[in-house]
Amino acid sequence: ISGYSLVIQARDSGTPPLSSSVTVNVDISDVNDNSPVFTPANYTAVIQENKPVGTSILQLVVTDKDSFHNGPPFTFTILTGNEEEEFTLDPHGILRSAVIFRHMVATEYVLCVQAKDSGKPQQVSHTYVQVRVIEESIHKPTAIPLEIFIVTMEDDFPGGVIGKIHATDQDVYDVLTYTLKSEQKSLFKVNNHDGKIIALGGLDNGKYVLNVSVSDGRFQVPIDVVVHVEQLLQEMLQNTVTIRFENVSPEDFVGLHMHGFRRTLRNAVLSQKQDSLHIISIQPVAGSNQLDMLFAVQMHNGGFYKPAYLIQKLTNARRHLENVIRISAILEKNCSGLDCQEQHCEQSLSIDSHSLMTYSTARISFVCPRFYRNVRCMC
């Protein structure tokens, strides 16, 4: 408890008795009676040989239960194990290399490190740091090529995470970093540490080939990353058909089935090879394990196939399509639950271009807008 606030009253013996009160604040001054605490109590670290001088090896973590003026900043000192001055320890507790280590010279160092707090008199704690010197990287990183498909409304792409590079290295202690060539940074970014690819807003329609590389500190390997951006036309939304799949997640559909189903679907519904199949969006059906895929087909002259024509084609080819993935339903209208009797059921489709869904796998990523259906009975 750092302090108390007391209200003290004095009352006299007169008739009637009179009184007054005063507040007394009692502050408890901290005595430096807690030593710094290392977390964990002792450390193990690894450095590869031939790393440059100044390479960060370890960050010491120290806390103190005393008040702030009796705790940090801490003073760090290497007491033993650094007689040849192979290491330096900065005021922030970061242990760095002061030489270029050779695995053949020494494979292990044990340092005794001291931390002093700022109190008077100072309290002291010690920890031991075991540093292993391992052979430098001998394996190049390997990365899986990534293809990204982005579907967005005309000139209305808000940006965001569109995929992630998957890279591995057989050298256990290698730390991988990712870089993007500077000339492409006005449109895309890559997180240096985890390989996530971020697209900035306002991407134009077309194909982008990104110059991305992954490095383990010694080897640098290029990665094939291709981004396809397709801008939707308003007319597409008026000529869409939905295929509902059974027992499939969006990621499994994208990673395992999308390419094959797209090819089978093209063969089933396209009248001419020059026609274009557009997958507009995929999204899970709420409260189920089903998945909706929204698509439209554009003729080579610019118009679109009518939904009724597409549904007839799909119905005829359904058995063939289900050789790829199980289909639950083919929807043009979604009026289940509405009793329109002799009235007409009208469906409208809306796209939320600022609510993007990213379904990412190691090899393929699909980014699309969320869509909503509204149905009502019309005379």
From TrEMBL:
Subcellular location: Membrane
A GO term for molecular function: calcium ion binding
InterPro entries: Cadherin-domain_protein, Cadherin-like_dom, Cadherin-like_sf, Cadherin_CS
GO cellular component: cell-cell junction; plasma membrane
Location, primary (coarse class): membrane
Positions of the Cadherin domain: 4-38, 39-143, 154-245
Organism superkingdom: Eukaryota
BP GO terms, sorted: homophilic cell adhesion via plasma membrane adhesion molecules
Keywords attached to this entry: Calcium, Cell adhesion, Membrane, Repeat, Transmembrane, Transmembrane helix
Pfam families cross-referenced by the UniProt entry: Cadherin (PF00028)
Protein name: FAT3 protein
Protein's organism: Podilymbus podiceps
Gene that encodes it: Fat3
